[in-house]
Amino acid sequence: MFLLALTTGTLLFVTVIFTNVVQTLSLVVVPFSRAAFRRANREAANS
């Protein structure tokens, strides 16, 4: 049971951190294309 909880918690943590990194990196796109910035964040939010 502990191993299942640890695995699930780790998977959720990695998913949240990855989504956060994608959203933070999308800030690089803002000066070039606000539409691309919004699209990247919308996709990250939908995942």
Topology:
Layout lengths: L1 H24 L8 H13 L1
Helix pairs in contact: 1-2
Summarize this structure as a short list of keywords or feature phrases.
47 residues; 79% helix; single chain; elongated; 2 helices; mainly alpha
**From the alpha-carbon coordinates, what is the Rg to the nearest angstrom?**
14 Å
Count up the domains. 1
Low-confidence regions: none
Tell me the total number of β-strands. Answer: 0
Shape: elongated
For the biggest sheet, the summary is: none
| Distance separating the two termini | 27 Å
What is the helix tally?
A: 2
Strand content: under 5%
- Give the helix level as a range of percent: over 70%
**Series of H and E elements:** HH
Structural class: mainly alpha
Average pLDDT metric:
92
Fold and architecture overview:
- The chain is an all-alpha fold.
- The protein has one domain (2-46).
- It has 2 helices and no strands.
- It has helices spanning 2-25, 34-46.
- The longest helix has 24 residues, at 2-25.
- It is elongated and about 50 Å long.
- The mean pLDDT is 92.
Gist of the model:
This protein is mostly helical and 47 residues long. The chain contains 2 helices and no strands. It is elongated and about 50 Å long.
